Task: structure prediction
Amino acid sequence: MIAKSDILQVKKDIEGFVGSKVRVKANKGRKRIVVKEGILENTYPSIFIVRIQNEFEDTCRSVCYSYTDVLTNTVELSLCK
Result:
């Protein structure tokens, strides 16, 4: 079971990287894993937003994930160099 203190710790850890370039590895189910790089844009009480630059066009899109996704290893977040 996921405790509220665990979620708050993950939120606190992620808040320190706002504005940094991150790599997001998301498990979309049925053996589909998506790896994208973007900028950690903002954090909110239950979600965080990553702005991803489209590879082929000059457009950006924002993708949001929850802190529980990080705790359950559905989403892995790592810093880019």
User: Anything to note?
Assistant: The chain is about 20% helix and 50% strand. The first strand starts at residue 21 and ends at 29. Strands lie at 21-29, 32-43, 47-53, 60-66, 75-79.
